[in-house]
């Protein structure tokens, strides 16, 4: 057996163990919500060959993860440790993964009327709704080429990259508004103004 084969087998076993722990967590959860990964500090720390690309697609050992349920499960235990990277965290282990831009992709949105005010409700790449209702939740920076990089905080400090077609739809419904004496183009949600520039 080659060293590469052994490494691959070990990674496969590690993935199966992580999946089982996550499934146990999901089964034991009551009242919904996400596992409290920020409270878990396991002694076992390692790496696993999982990558999330710019479109929010998950890959394991270079192959796309086809099962949406698995991706959703793993995304529920994802944690960003500032300055150290992204981890899948359970009470017993913490495994580092690779993320190209952001762990989620924002693939759609709709406008709902809440208490007489419009609220933007985004859909992320694992099929969950993200309400735009906190100041600085949507921030737009620029790449070196001048292309906008719009990011929405999905939960905790985890962000989603807004797909280009979704961003253009936001621009279509944008208004101008004066912020600190400067005229800006942006969108309104939950009574808050979010600049798109």
Automatic annotation (TrEMBL):
Top-rank taxon:
Bacteria
Q: Where is the DUF1285 domain?
A: 35-100, 103-196
Q: Which Pfam families match?
A: DUF1285_C, DUF1285_N
| InterPro entries per UniProt | DUF1285 (IPR010707), DUF1285_beta_roll_sf (IPR023361), DUF1285_C (IPR048342), DUF1285_N (IPR048341)
UniProt protein name: DUF1285 domain-containing protein
Species this chain originates from: Alkalimarinus sediminis
């Amino acid at each position: 057996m080659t060293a590469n084969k052994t490494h691959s087998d070990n990674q496969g076993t590690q993935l199966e163990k992580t999946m089982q722990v996550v499934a146990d967590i999901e089964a034991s959860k009551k009242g919904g919500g996400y596992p409290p990964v920020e409270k878990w500090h396991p002694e076992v720390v390692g790496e696993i060959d999982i990558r999330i690309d710019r479109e929010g697609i998950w890959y394991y050992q270079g192959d796309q993860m086809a099962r949406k349920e698995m991706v959703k499960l793993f995304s529920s235990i994802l944690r960003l440790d500032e300055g150290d990277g992204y981890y899948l965290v359970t009470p017993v282990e913490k495994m580092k993964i690779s993320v190209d831009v952001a762990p989620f992709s924002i693939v759609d949105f709709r406008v709902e009327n809440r208490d007489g005010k419009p609220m933007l409700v985004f859909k992320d790449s694992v099929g969950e709704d993200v309400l735009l209702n906190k100041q600085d939740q949507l921030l737009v920076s620029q790449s070196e080429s001048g292309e906008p990089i719009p990011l929405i905080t999905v939960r905790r400090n985890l962000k989603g990259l807004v797909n280009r077609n979704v961003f253009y739809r936001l621009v279509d419904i944008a208004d101008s508004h004066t912020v600190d004496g400067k005229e800006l183009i942006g969108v309104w949600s939950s009574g808050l103004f979010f600049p798109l520039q």
